[in-house]
Amino acid sequence: MARYGLPDNVEFCSRCVMSNQKVTPSLVQKDTKEGAKHTLIFQDGVCSACRVQELKANKIDWHQREKELLRLLDKYRSNDGSYDCIVPGSGGKDSIFQSHILKHKYGMNPLTVTWAPHIYTDVGRRNFDSWVNKGGCDNFLFTPDGEKHALLTRLAYKNLLHPFQPFIFGQRNYVMHMARKFNIKLIFFGENPAEYGGFENEENSSKMNTSYFVDDNRKNMRISGLSFEELTTQHKISEQDLSLYLPLTNEQYQQHQPDPRWLGYYLNFHPQSNYYYAREHVGFEPNDQRTEGSYSRYNSLDDKIDGYHYWCGHLKFGVGRATHEASQEIRNGDLTREEGVALVRKYDDELPKRYLPDFLDYMNLTETAFFEIADSFRSPHLWELKNGEWQLRHKVS
Fold it and tell me: Is the dihedral of CA 134, 135, 137, 140 positive or negative?
């Protein structure tokens, strides 16, 4: 009855509000319409993300971790003003925190790189400009061919109900191409996916698995749910068009010998603290209203399509934006579980309407087609149709 390789039974974590239907942050090029996923691991009613947070809170010596960071930075630190590390980001609170603290506290000279959002929000563009103008770091902003990127997004929505998949390809792989271009070895990403329930065996590792960035079987990869041959013959999208979306070959990776790291391994990331840091140091702005689908105002603000990424995940897996954000804040001690349950039940089902006309225009879809496609991806073990309305069979309590 369950689709996408999800468990038939629905279980909610006894500490946070996440369910066992959440898929881990697997390598996006392996995402298929019906392919099996690795879901959140539960043990004695507690999800793996909560267990990792318990480890962070009780067993990690953060002073010792900072010493490790200093040794790593000294290994790569430049003496001539050249770039000595690279930080991908959008100008959100976390990328501002990462690049700014590396530059101003630890004396590094980061290059920041950005894969542009589909459609900038006004506040997102202002925050990006503040990051570049006040953060003290150079930046390369790459904007892919708008026509082809919109087509890939539309195909990913129709074939996978995952409109963000092509963007995630670019966001993840562009930084590696830029690091190779500038011969920068040290690359900093933010938090280890183990903190959200994925790759739990890497929870105590600073180094990223090369499977994130290397693939010698490019021709066998599927983007937007289609093969290379289908993209080329049916949609006139060439391998060159996709070059920066694609991971490095193993030969390229071995030639460059990059050293990608999780900065969250060395520094105890805290989303609210990162927000206040970014606000203080570069004037980061929160949203002018509550973000639809959730209760927050400072997460993922830059892209008008961002809300539909979470909304589509809610339809496929029964896990919406409020669930993601409340679970994280419960683990960090910023919410009680009771508060999180109330927020999830109030906001998780919400359709983002503010930018719906922009989203439909971008993908060249009618509103009717938009909902017909979305509804076709609902798994029957999660959803039922009652009196003409879709309702979740199981809700957190």
Answer: negative
pLDDT at 290: 95
Tokens representing 279 are 């606000």
Q: Which domain holds residue 270?
A: 1-397
How many helices (H) does the chain have, and how many strands (E)?
15, 11
Contacts of 388 (CB under 8 A, 6+ apart): none
The answer to whether the Cα torsion of 210, 212, 214, 220 is positive or negative is positive
Asked if pLDDT for residue 250 goes beyond 60, the answer is yes
DSSP 230-268: HHHHHH---TTTTTTTSPBPHHHHHHH--EEEEHHHHS-
* Cβ pair 86, 187 in contact under 8 A: yes
Number of domains within the chain: 1
CA 397 to each of CA 11, 197, 306, 340: distance values in angstroms, whole numbers, following the listed order: 11, 21, 27, 10
| CB distance 8 to 39 below 8 Å | no
Q: Rounded to an integer, what distance in angstroms lies between the CA atom of residue 178 and that of residue 183?
A: 8
Residues 6+ apart with CB under 8 A from 332: 53, 270, 271, 272
Structural tokens at position 307? 């809300």
Of 382, 303, 391, the residue nearest 91 (C-alpha)? 303
- Strand ranges (E), the chain: 42-43, 46-47, 85-88, 110-115, 138-142, 186-189, 222-223, 226-227, 259-262, 383-386, 389-392
> What long-range pairs does 335-339 form, CB within 8 A, spacing at least 24?
337/15, 337/16, 337/17
Structure tokens at 278: 């970014």
Q: How many CB atoms lie within 10 A of CB 65?
A: 15
Tell me the CA distances in angstroms from 395 to 10, 264, 349, one per residue in order: 9, 31, 11
Q: Report the Cα–Cα distance between both ends of the chain, in Å, rounded.
A: 23
Question: What is the four-CA torsion angle of 3, 7, 10, 12, rounded to 10 degrees?
Answer: -120
The reported pTM is 0.93
Matching residue, tokens 């391994």: 265
Tell me the pLDDT tens digit for each residue of 334-387: 999 999 999 999 999 999 999 999 999 999 999 999 999 999 999 999 999 999
Rounded to whole angstroms, the Cα distance separating 198 from 200 reads 5
Cα–Cα distance for residue pair 305/301, rounded to 1 Å: 10
| Maximum separation of any 2 CA atoms in the chain, in Å | 69
